[in-house]
Amino acid sequence: MEAVKIPPRCPRANAFAEGWIRTVRAECTDRMLIAGEHHLRTVLDRYTEHHNTGRPHQSLDLRAPCDAPNVTPLPNGTIRRRKILGGLINEYHHSA
Predict the structure, then answer these.
(1) What's the Cα-to-Cα distance from 37 to each of 31, 40, 41, 42, 88, rounded to whole Å?
(2) What are phi and psi of 22, to 5 degrees?
(3) pLDDT for residue 40
(4) Phi, psi for 59 (deg, rounded to 5)
(5) How far apart are CA 57 and CA 1, in angstroms?
(6) Secondary structure (3-state) at 70
(7) Sequence-separated (6 or more) residues with CB below 8 Å from residue 80
């Protein structure tokens, strides 16, 4: 990974990074007390996993980025809740 300097007075040059940081702060780190660098890395790793596999995105028709594009999950059985980050985020899954 390489750091790239953005041109001055170009807010659109880093729009993706700013959007990601805003999302992480609003949904995760602003609601937690971070104890140190190791704790922060663990929290961000768990949140990134949730963001890419379990969180619905409006731009993707309420699918997660890692979901298969042609598969529509059908509800069968009961629904189970899985707590992430100590209950800050909840994911719901169908169980047989």
Answers:
(1) 17, 5, 6, 9, 19
(2) -60, -40
(3) 92
(4) -70, -15
(5) 26
(6) coil
(7) 92, 93, 94, 95
